[in-house]
Amino acid sequence: MMLFPYRILYSIFIINLFVSYNPTLCETYKYTREYLLNSKLFNLEPPQTAFSLDIQPISYPDKCELKQLHSVSRHGSRLPDPENIIAFDELEKIFANVSVAKGWYKNPFLMRKSHHLVKRGELEPYFDGLQSRKRYAKFWNG
């Protein structure tokens, strides 16, 4: 499978990142080791601000009549699939075997919750609908 080499490279990158971690460099940027380890640096923007409702309706000539509207959207954000959860489990084992990284990583994803919608995933289609209603107001109201 093609993902296997990617997982190895990703694991090597993460291990090198932690092995080469130099706390003195963090002082330059006034970040502590604890801050870097405990902060969520890759959070997604909240759905309420990610989906701007400050949009203008699309204008059409009066003679236009909507016959059919194709709206392509995806399901909301979900937890990883079983294959990726297994990869995270393997990564956790790798960290457990590195002396400087013991206990730094715990896989947050449970196999029994694979593919489940996250809270953001529940809200994304809702805000997508609100945006669509505002953008195509002429057709929804008429």
UniProtKB/TrEMBL annotation:
User: Which terms does the record give in the GO molecular function aspect?
Assistant: acid phosphatase activity
Q: Record keywords: Signal included?
A: yes
PROSITE patterns named in the record: HIS_ACID_PHOSPHAT_1
Example GO CC term: the record gives: membrane
Q: Which Gene3D superfamilies did the record assign?
A: Phosphoglycerate mutase-like
Q: Where is the protein localized?
A: Membrane
Q: Which domain of life is it from?
A: Eukaryota
The principal location of this protein is membrane
Keywords carried by this UniProt record: Membrane, Signal
Q: Which InterPro entries match?
A: Acid_Pase_AS (IPR033379), His_PPase_superfam (IPR029033)
Which protein is depicted? 12785_t:CDS:1
Organism ancestry: Eukaryota, Fungi, Fungi incertae sedis, Mucoromycota, Glomeromycotina
